[in-house]
Request: fold
Amino acid sequence: MATRPQHTRGKKGRPKPARKGAAPELYKASKAQLIKFYREMLTIRRFEEKAGQMYGQGEIGGFCHLYIGQEAVVVGVQDCLLEGDSIITGYRDHGHMLAAGIDAGAVMAELTGRASGISSGKGGSMHMFSTRDGFYGGHGIVAAQVPIGTGIAFAHRYRRQDNICVTYFGDGAANQGQVFEAFNMARLWDLPVLYVVENNRYAMGTSVLRSTGSRELWKRGDSFKIPGKQVDGMNVLAVRAAAGAAIDQVRSGKGPYLLEMQTYRFRGHSMSDPALYRSKEEVQQMKAEHDPIGQVKKLLLDNKMATEDDLKEIGREVKAEITRAAEFAIASPEPEASELFSDVLVEVAS
Amino acid sequence: MSITITMPALSPTMTEGTLLKWLVKVGDKVEPGDILGEIETDKATIELEAADQGTVARLLVAEGTEGIAVNSPIAILLEEGEEKVPEEEIPATPSPQPSPAEGRGEQTPAVSEQLSAEKPKELEKAAPQIPSDVKTKQMTVREALRDAMAEEMRRDQRVFLMGEEVAEYQGAYKVSQGLLDEFGEDRVIDTPITEYGFAGLGVGAAFAGLKPIVEFMTFNFAMQAVDQIINSAAKTRYMSGGQMAASIVFRGPNGAAARVAAQHSQCYASWYAHCPGLKVVAPWSGADAKGLLKSAIRDPNPVIFLENEILYGQSFEVPTDPDFTLPIGAAKIERAGAHVTIAAFSLMVGVALEAAETLAGEGIDAEVINLRSLRPLDTAAIVESVKKTNRLVSVEEGWPFAGIGSELAAQMMEHAFDWLDAPVARVSGDDVPMPYAANLERLALPSAAGIVTAAKAVCYR
Ligand SMILES: Cc1ncc(C[n+]2csc(CCOP(=O)(O)OP(=O)(O)O)c2C)c(N)n1
Ligand SMILES: [Mg+2]
Reply:
């Protein structure tokens, strides 16, 4: 069983991974659920690998932030959500969209800037939305999504819906002032919002050790009386268990909750980041010992819930889906030139 | 089918790279995510990961090969079950010469780096910038900015640099390369991502007598901090009857980069130029960058210093004298001409010069003014030029409404009305948030062709 990665100061102030500690609370997943988690995480992984490759080929431009390594977080949280719930995140958003059930082709076509993209080719990697799926973006400005997510929760409450808004943000974003302004209002008005800090230890090249003196991000709600919990975000069962309990509280009207998911990105911040601020050994160790997909694969095999062949078959199906998405994204036409001026404002009949 | 691995593009502006090292050999089995080798780009060394499963069948380029064009084949994988690569599937070994037509350059909208990187040298002959007895050195805008900061930090202990990723990472765009090493962590300071907070902290430090250089990773993020910039930095000298003021530079890339879409590509020139209590500077060349940044740091007032990411990699001749500065508030004629005046700033100066070349071929002799400073604006220099040419075209990347061009038009009405033979024409970015799609982005940004059209229109041609 995986232990949670912890941030203790190692040599040269680098975070030292995982001490053996108390086993985290784990969700008891059925075989079908475990296979579902495996498939969903693998879909995100393969999608991101493909996106990285297409970026290299010049099919995708601008900034492209991959979610590889963090898959367990969205897959575990999303499994707790109900029809009508909302989610919102930053620019590292492809995984959130796939987990929300948005078509991989429409996401990939947005990355290639095509008319069939989820934002009609006008938003790109960092700015994607699908309100139909409860996905409110895809925001390029660090932490902007935190008050916005709080506002979506406000709207759920205003309409007396039982729905909640899951608001994801990074460890770097956690230092922005507007996060605390949002926390204060969320508590003041008991808004149905689950804050999920995806603590992947780095904000671009800045380790959490160098960005704050208050590193227990799950305690960031303390002074606002928002309860918090630290979770092994590399283990989908730990994520599922913690998110399930937190969401029950939020949904029952008890107000906001904060989960710190301790996770790790296997790739650089964006495609052009050589990631010299962390050691190869650290990355290697996280990949070898904490890979969220590897962990579930091992569980499935060890418990004889699936054979190598079953998993290979899933791998083939996922690959086929991603290949189809990529082909669609490349074959689709660019937006019409007239689209340059559409959707700036909506015309109002006078 | 075997899988061909090609030289990847690893940043929006990369066109070629060096294959430093292979970490696999022929016969190795690889999984997605495995590291195949190391590639060096203009900015960094990056690992090349496998995207597919397979067995390495061929390594097509040797370790150490330089100048491999983006998208040219570098290795071949065999898929599961394949024995060997059919001959017809082996791509020709790539030529080490970069071929920009196949690379990213084609797709980079509006201004291709290659084009504008070569242009200035040639054009400097047409209108020499620097007297011939001044010692100069060829350097990039990135290096010129770094040298300006380093020289001023050596000169004045009160000067320090603060911002996201400026120290250990050496700058998100590598502008502060080496500064941490030279000046230490007391004077080159990495901040958390808290623009509002550190801009305000910088203003406070300036009120208390220090001279901060506050770097915004890009000016898009300065919007988080705009209240401290305007309400605190710009207005305090006035509000305090001159007792208290901020000698501070807010600097970073402004304007559109490539394909980063609406929230990351915007020109803030007219936003800041609107505000009394600020100076607003927008350099184009390496000499501009160095001379104006040094003046901005020495200036007792708050200065907004608008750089441009696409210019960072372009090279120019730059004076080496550590006392070289350029006055804030003086425009520069980059190219003398008689028929029409084109006024531009930052990246658009290069585009305007390109347009002037085209116009010359059609018998129109354009004068290109590099505004350099937007507040104060060198109205006198523009009026002088218009008295000669009787026509003005303004060029900016920003939006047209209430833009710099609108201000130039108003200034000409007030100060040059009798000399104008045509209404002032404005070339600007389109009045929309920046789209992501390559074709739409190209349309949204001002181009040399657009400037040519506008110049011809005011010449009634
Ligand atoms: C307000 C603002 N400042 C700076 C940036 C540039 N930037 C983009 S991502 C990033 C790092 C954010 O790190 P974190 O919140 O930890 O999220 P992660 O990238 O690790 O998912 C920075 C500084 C931005 N987009 N917005
Ligand atoms: Mg982070």
Observations:
- Chain A touches chain B through 59 residues (CB under 8 Å).
- The CA atoms of residues 140 and 206 of chain A lie 18 Å apart.
